Every structure is written in C-alpha cells, then in structure tokens.
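PROTEIN DESIGN WORKSHEET
SECTION A - STRUCTURE
LENGTH: 74
TOKENS:
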C-alpha cells in the first residue's frame, strides 16, 4: 500500500487518519463531509466500484471497518 511510510498501523488502523488520507479527496474534510454518519456499506461500495471507490480494494477489512466506525460515530 502506498501509505506504508506513514505512522498508520495495519494492526490497529486509525479510521480518521485513513479517511483523511484516502477519502477526503472526494468526500471533503471529515468535519464537513457529506458522508459523515453513513459508515454502512463501505465495503459494498468498494466492491461495486461506486464512484471509483474500487481503487480502495487494497484496504484490509480492519481498515475498512475503522473508516466505517469513524464515519458512523455521529
């Protein structure tokens, strides 16, 4: 993965850091993101390449769950 040189941990992923790195380019900064509160079905959207999200298929299940958890933490 291209973010291996960052302080992100593959065993204890930081959902907010992953969102900022991988999602904010399309969905905007976390604080004002239109997808906040919608952590459900991220993996399905990746699998279906919704909006080009198929590129995120390199993420581990734990990383996807970490992003979903931070988005759903409203």
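SECTION B - SEQUENCE
RESIDUE ASSIGNMENT:
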């Amino acid at each position: 993965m291209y973010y291996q040189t960052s302080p992100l941990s593959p065993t204890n992923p930081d959902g907010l850091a992953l969102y900022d790195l991988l999602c904010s380019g399309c969905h905007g900064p976390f604080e004002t993101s239109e997808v906040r509160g919608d952590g459900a079905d991220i993996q399905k959207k990746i699998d279906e390449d919704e909006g080009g999200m198929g590129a995120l298929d390199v993420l581990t299940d734990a990383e996807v769950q970490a992003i979903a958890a931070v988005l759903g933490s409203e």
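SECTION C - NOTES
The CA atoms of residues 38 and 72 lie 5 Å apart.
The helical segments are 15-27, 42-47, 61-71.
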